Amino acid sequence: MPTDEEMMLVAKLFHDAPNLDKETEYYTAVMALLMVAPSRCSELMSLSVNCLEWEEDSLGNKQLGIRWIPAKNGKEGLKWVPSSMQDVIIEAVKRLTNIGALARNAAKFAEENPNTLMISDQDVQLSPYLSQKPLTEIEIGKALGFNGKYGIRTKWFKKLMKENDFVITYDVLGKYLYEKYTSKFNYWPYIDKNKNVKASEALLLFRENEFHDDFSPKSFSFVLPTVNQINDRFCYSETRPKTSLWEKHCIGTSKGEFIRLPSHNARHWLSTKAERGGMDELTLANWAGRARVADNKAYDHRTEEEKSESVRNLLIPEDISILDKIHLNLPITYEDLGKDRIGIATVTEIGICEHDYAMSPCSRHGDCETCKELICIKGLESSLEILKQRETQLIEQFNKAKEHHKIGVFGEDRWISNLGWRLTHIKTKIKFLENSEIPNGSLLRMPDEYDPSPVKLALQEKGMDIDLQKPETARLDDDLYRLMEL
């Protein structure tokens, strides 16, 4: 894939081209069309001079599109031009239109006058008599735009003389040139197989020798560039000296090297830039004229780290909430819970356990309902449902304990105290989860004094100040029953 430096050198060459020469103007305009949207070089051949279209978007702003016929079963339509590139594309189309104007005139003449020689000399009018008149080599040279004073010794002319009994007329020249130039178009007078664009309308059309340093362009000629000719202008080669624009104008990279930039590399460069910019796969496939979205993969040159980062950003936005992380099965860090330590918390069926299992095993043996290290999260539907089920079970057990206590069963007062303590915790959590005024994602922790650690209890018994408030002793009175709604 080309570097950004190489692509910027193409842009600079396009900018400087009007002050250089016609060849540079033409080929940099071609490359500008390839740099505006992911395209194949061969697709440019079917562009017409009227390929630019303006349409309003949903906001009422005018957007520029190029009427495009993609290859390989792509969908025909408008290839949209980014706003920052609109002026560049308008200028590129203008340059190509001006350079190829005379070639399109010649193609139009051939279309309307088959097998007829196009005479550039306005003083010569081809009458039926003059068309059949044998021509001298000087007259032939004048008609074809070269000097025939010293004879014509080219192979094609010798072959033409032999095929016509050494008698050359304007009619013979007309048939020869018509066959020579139209045979290069498989669907003459059209460019493409769908017959949308005629050769006389082709944007990239130019005359033979249009960019030659030693010979003048042939006024009756019209040709399209080949992909190889375009590549030669942007790919430096030791075997083809002076064909690349880089060598011609002594332009190199910061390392002093000439550039090798095949036209198809612009397609790879743009596709990768679009992937890095976050363009979705369907939009990219449509923009590039690809028949299958899966084909995007062949043009994606991002590193594995870049791909992983894009997926991570897609799945884990910076402002993701704890609830969203739970729903996506993503790890909950202690930092997410407001703890200043490194590690991952454990998501349970009724909340999040922030116990650090790397330090010690669970001292509660899975008894999470009254544990201070369990955090309830508002909006976690599964926890509310499970807590209500356990509330129903505990109420049933608590009622049985009360009945047994009334008849004097030994030890039931301890069960009433334990079950009441547990039921109070669960009811508090349920009221928190059902409170519509509390926003989703809010955290509920049990105060430390309601579940002190064994270490803190031991220190407290020794009379040490550990900043632990002692809660009031719960009694089996009417206030406790009212709290439990019993």
The total number of structural domains is 3
CATH superfamily placement of the largest domain: Intergrase catalytic core
What's the oligomerization state?
single chain
Residue share in helix: 40-55%
Separate helix tally = 18
- Provide mean pLDDT, rounded: 79
Which sequence of strands runs across the widest sheet?
4-5-6-7-8
Strand fraction band? 5-15%
Overall spatial form: rod-shaped
Structural class: alpha+beta
CATH architecture of the largest domain: Orthogonal Bundle
GO molecular function, one term: DNA binding
Coiled coil: 377-404
Protein name: Integrase
Keywords: Coiled coil
Word description of this protein:
With 486 residues, this protein is an alpha+beta fold. It has three domains: 1-132 and 173-315, hpI Integrase, Chain A, CATH 1.10.443.10; 134-168, no CATH class; 322-483, no CATH class. It is built from 18 helices and eight strands. It has helices at 4-16, 22-36, 86-99, 101-112, 128-132, 137-144, 155-163, 170-182, 227-234, 245-248, 263-277, 281-288, 304-315, 322-327, 381-406, 412-434, 454-461, 478-483, and strands at 52-56, 62-68, 77-80, 332-333, 344-347, 352-353, 374-377, 443-444. The longest helix is centred in the last third of the chain and has 26 residues, at 381-406. The two termini are 75 Å apart. The model is unreliable at 473-477 (pLDDT under 50).
